[in-house]
Each structure stands twice: as C-alpha cells, then as structure tokens.
C-alpha cells in the first residue's frame, strides 16, 4: 500500500470528468429560459429551447417575467450576462454524454480557457527571463536578511494583501503568477512550500469569500438579487476580518512548527525536490547591481500595472497577458540578453507552467460536459426546491450548503451569480429574511468549498510546487472545518439580529 501514490491533478480531474459524464445519464436534462440585455438595440432577448423573443427594455417587461431587478442594473452594464428567468425551468430530452464527448471535453475546455492559459504561459516565460538575470535570487537574499527573526511578518503581509485584492476586485486567477515568485521567499525564510501556497491561496479564497466591493461577485450578485451591494456590507466586513484572523493564526502556528522542527512539515519528504525546483534558497547574499534593481522594478511594475488595469481600466486577460509579455521584453533589453537566448529562455519558462495550463483546461472541460448534458440547470432547480418551508435559521444554513455544492459544478463566481440569483433570491422573501442573506450564502458557500474544490484553482496552484492534493487536504481540513462551523453560526445568527 505504501507504494500506491496519490494520482496527479490531471488524473483527478479526468476521473471527475468521467463521473460527471456518467451523471448526465442519470440526472434529468432541463433548462431555464434566459434573458439578455442588448445595449446596441436597447431591448431584451428572451431565449428558450423553442424560440427567441425580442422584448422592450422596460421595467414592465421585468415585472411580467417575475424578475425583481431594477431596469437600470441592466442598462448601466452592471448585469451584462444572460440571467435565468424564474419559473421557466423545463425538462428536456436527455443529452447523455458518451465516451467521445468525454475524450473531447479536455480539448474543448482548453479552447474555452485559452485566455487564462495564455496568461499562465506568458507569465511562465516572464519568470524564466527574470530568473535568468539573477535579479530574483538577489531580491530573495535581500528580503530574507531584512526579515531575519521576524519572518512571520511575511505571512501576515502576503496573506492580507492578497485577501485585500480578493475582497475588492476578485483576485483569484491572477494569483497563479505569484506562486513561483513568492514560494522561494518562504523557503528562504525556513518555512516549507505549503506555507507559501497557504498565504497566497487562502488569502485569495478568504478575500473573495468575504467580498465587499468585488464587482465580479458582490456587486453582480446583489444586482441580480435586486438589492444594493451596500446591503449587508458591514456583515461581510466583519466576516472578512474574523476569517482572515482565524486563517492567519492557523498558518502562523503551522509555519512556526515547521521552522522549529522541519520534520513537522507535511511535505517534509519532498523538501529536496522542492528546493531543487526553486533553486538553492541557502545561497550566499547576492548584492544588487543597478541593472538587477531596474529589472526587478520592471518585473514588479508588471503586477502593479495589471492590478491598476483590472481595477480602473476594465482590463481582462488579453490586456494582462500583453502586460507581462511587454515586461519580459523590456527586462530582456535591460539585462542585455541575446535574442536567441531570450527566446529559448522564454519558451522554457512557459513550458515549466504548461502542466498548470493543462489542469486549467481540463477543469473547464468538466463544465463543458455539464453544459452539453443540460444538467446544470436541473441541479439548480432541485436545489431551489430544498428550501421550501424552512425556518429562517435553517434557511441561511441550507443556502450556504447548497451554494457550496453548486460551486463544484459552476465554479465561476460571476456565472453563478447571474444564473442563480434570479431563482434563489426570491426564496428569501418566502421565509421572511433579507435577500442579502442569499447573497452572503452564495459568497460564503463558494468561498468555503473553493478551499478544496478540485474544479477551481487549487490543483493548478499545487502543481506549481509539485505538492499532491492529498497533502493539501491534510493541511487544510482542520481550518476548513473551523471556518465551516464559524460561518454557519454567523449565518444562523444574522437572520435573527
């Protein structure tokens, strides 16, 4: 039994894809009608399985369809995706997916996820270039010396900053860029790679789970629920502070254990492999030259420009990817790297993250199978039926659990919001609680399950540091249980306060 190794992330996802393919043979097919606002023609398009209707963009149209959302939420661009129309679910002829569809799903997923995949590959190329200059080694040595004796500050700083990005603009996929950059810093501070993964991934997860002004979850979900995003915001601020504190205490306690006794590390058996992967973290201090400082400055500015563009300029993957590509070229000029060497180094760096890119594509392929098998809306329909007749406290708890389950099948926060809120938020009215309870349940359910969701980003993140999913589960499960208990207590109490 000791020789049996836990499967790789790619294999885990393919097994899940196979199971989801089987589900399409047993879960009834069905679909809701959808409504999409067309800004060019200023009208709505209602799409069903049998027809497509153009409807006037008026509040009367929304009222007639039982969509309790103000018209301006559509016209000002807050809701830009098609939403499900309540009470329009219809059972359809089954569309079971076969072996051929299963085989094609990773390819379709890679095509659909091409934007984030190219971002990952270009970031890999940029990392390859900056590493070849020696600038990053110099930066690690400098930071390790500065933090000597106070390395815990690094944990607090990284986790808090990433959480701030998550709560404000949904800092999630972008964190992939930071793993190969920051992991060596944590290793230099005498922690293990799991501490670095935890700071970045848990920070992002808690930030997005307790989003306050995140347009891709809080705002779009509140809009789709027909309420202001400021409704319930102070409760989410409290949750952010409380959950972040719990996570920091948990990570620091584990990190201190590892620092005092490296054999306490969950990944102690991989220490040499990981050290080789990220270079020699015990190397002597490398002094900065002006050239190295300038290269690191350009590297850091790539991330600063990316964050500014996403928050203020409505950038997305194309613009972010272009930023990192230009940054790599500028660093190549600064470091005076020959053209042929630059290309070889860039390609090798991109190749180092190819496994991560494939994981992202295979995970997207699972959602392709569900969409083609017409089972996503069916699960949403039955999930909405579960809350009928519940008391307030049980409703809040049940909605959190339902959203956690749905997030396995719909891992996109914005996609989940527009697909489910028009259906789920009116259920709050029937049990006498505010609709912000449903918005909170949506955020907390997604955020909690995101910590272990194999169709999210955790497998891609672990692949960067060559850590198995089983070891992540061993690390995260105590914290996962603590956060679940705390969240459900807060959700239950919130409906009575």
What this model shows, in words?
Helix 1 (9-23) runs parallel beside helix 16, helix 7 packs parallel to helix 9 (193-209) and helix 19 packs across helix 20 (436-450). The strands form two sheets. The chain has a four-stranded antiparallel β-sheet with strand order 4-3-2-5. The chain has helices at residues 9-23, 59-64, 72-75, 99-112, 114-133, 135-146, 152-169, 179-188, 193-209, 215-225, 233-260, 271-277, 290-312, 317-334, 339-352, 354-372, 376-385, 392-409, 413-431, 436-450, 458-464, 469-494, and strands at residues 30-31, 34-38, 43-47, 52-56, 83-84, 90-91. Among the domains are: 33-88, no CATH class; 125-312 and 321-335, no CATH class. With 497 residues, the protein is mainly alpha-helical.
């Amino acid at each position: 039994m000791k020789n049996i190794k836990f499967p790789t992330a790619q294999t885990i996802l393919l097994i899940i894809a196979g199971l989801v393919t089987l589900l399409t043979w047993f879960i009834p097919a069905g679909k809701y009608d959808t409504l999409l606002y067309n800004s060019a023609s200023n009208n709505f398009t209602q799409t069903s399985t049998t027809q497509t209707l153009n409807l006037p963009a008026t509040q009367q149209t929304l009222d007639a369809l039982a969509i309790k959302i103000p018209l301006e939420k559509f016209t000002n661009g807050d809701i830009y995706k098609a939403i499900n129309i309540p009470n329009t679910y219809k059972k359809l002829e089954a569309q079971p997916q076969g072996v051929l569809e299963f085989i094609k799903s990773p390819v379709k997923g890679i095509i659909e996820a091409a934007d984030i995949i190219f971002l990952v590959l270009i970031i890999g190329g940029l990392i390859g270039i900056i590493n070849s200059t020696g600038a990053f080694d110099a930066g690690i040595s400098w930071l390790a010396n500065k933090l000597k004796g106070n390395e815990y500050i690094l944990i607090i700083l990284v986790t808090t900053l990433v959480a701030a990005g998550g709560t404000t603009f949904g800092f999630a996929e972008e964190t992939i860029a930071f793993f190969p950059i920051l992991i060596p810093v944590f290793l230099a501070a005498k922690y293990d790679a799991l501490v670095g993964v935890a700071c970045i991934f848990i920070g992002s997860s808690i930030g997005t789970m307790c989003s306050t002004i995140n347009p891709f979850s809080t705002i779009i979900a509140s809009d789709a629920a027909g309420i202001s995003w400021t409704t319930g915001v102070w409760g989410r601020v409290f949750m952010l502070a409380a959950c972040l504190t719990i996570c920091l205490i948990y990570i620091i306690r584990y990190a201190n254990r590892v620092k005092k006794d490296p054999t306490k590390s969950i990944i102690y058996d991989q220490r040499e492999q990981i050290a080789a992967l990220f270079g020699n973290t015990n190397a002597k201090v490398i002094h900065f030259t002006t050239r190295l400082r300038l290269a690191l400055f350009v590297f850091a500015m790539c991330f600063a420009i990316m964050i500014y563009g996403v928050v203020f300029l409505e950038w997305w993957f194309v613009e972010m990817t272009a930023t990192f590509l230009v940054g790599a070229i500028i660093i190549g000029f600064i470091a005076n790297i020959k053209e042929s060497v630059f290309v070889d180094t860039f390609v090798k760096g991109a190749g180092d993250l190819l496994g991560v890119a494939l994981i992202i594509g295979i995970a997207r392929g699972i959602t392709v199978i569900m969409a083609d098998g017409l089972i996503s809306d069916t699960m949403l329909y039955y999930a909405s039926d579960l809350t009928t007749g519940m008391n307030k406290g049980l409703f809040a708890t049940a909605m959190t659990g339902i959203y956690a389950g749905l997030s396995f099948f719909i891992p996109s926060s914005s996609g989940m919001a527009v697909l489910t809120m028009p259906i789920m938020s009116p259920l709050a009215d029937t049990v006498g609680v505010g609709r912000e309870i449903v918005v909170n349940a949506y955020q907390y359910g997604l955020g909690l399950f995101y910590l272990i969701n194999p169709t999210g980003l955790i497998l891609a993140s672990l692949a960067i540091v060559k850590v198995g999913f089983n070891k992540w589960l061993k690390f995260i499960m105590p914290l996962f249980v603590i956060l679940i208990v705390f969240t459900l207590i807060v959700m239950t109490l919130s409906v009575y306060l």
